[in-house]
Amino acid sequence: MSTNKKELRAVYKNLRAALSLDEIEEKSLNITNHLIELPIWNKTYFHVFLPIEEQKEINTEYILHLLSGKDKEIVISRSDFETRNMSHFLLTDNTKIKKNEYNIPEPVNGLSVPPETIEVVFVPLLAFDVLGNRVGYGKGFYDKFLSGCKPETIKIGLSFFEAESKIEDVSELDIKLDYCVMPEKIYRF
């Protein structure tokens, strides 16, 4: 099996498409339950992606509940597809969320948060390998965003599926994960 990003993207999009909504809920809840084991709870600013339901992404609502239960500051983003930059906003009771043209739920407004404030980032992905490399949708938003965070920012991938042994075409612009949490276990890199 080849393990270049383009082929992995196709394989994992198909695997995800085959999941039922019940499986997504169960796996998302199991992933959230594993997060409690990570040494991240002394941090304050947590960045969470809001899932693209049409892409059968992990339901991060469970993570939002966990974070708000622990009184954490939750940061969500809006993407600019022309510049491939993300703007970050504090999630509050007043935050209005609206889906963009790619069905990504995004904040319409809010208090801006600079990337260097963010201490923990939950990173969406399609696939990852045992070395901590990830494959996303290929637009580079997260690598660009993570490169603007402090080096000690904790990067946690969330995956429904097991690690690949090695992603072949990793570039030096790709930012590695510190952890990847699956429904069954946690990888530490």
Automatic annotation (TrEMBL):
GO terms for biological process: folic acid-containing compound biosynthetic process; tetrahydrofolate interconversion. It holds the Pfam family 5-FTHF_cyc-lig. Its EC number is 6.3.3.2. Substrate binds at residues 52, 57. Transmembrane segments: none annotated. It catalyses: (6S)-5-formyl-5,6,7,8-tetrahydrofolate + ATP = (6R)-5,10-methenyltetrahydrofolate + ADP + phosphate. It is an enzyme of class 6 (ligase). Its cofactor is Mg(2+). It comes from the Bacteria. The keyword Nucleotide-binding applies. InterPro entries: FTHF_cligase (IPR002698), FTHF_cligase-like_sf (IPR024185), NagB/RpiA_transferase-like (IPR037171). Belongs to the 5-formyltetrahydrofolate cyclo-ligase family. This is 5-formyltetrahydrofolate cyclo-ligase. It comes from Flavobacterium reichenbachii. The lineage of its organism: Bacteria, Pseudomonadati, Bacteroidota, Flavobacteriia, Flavobacteriales.
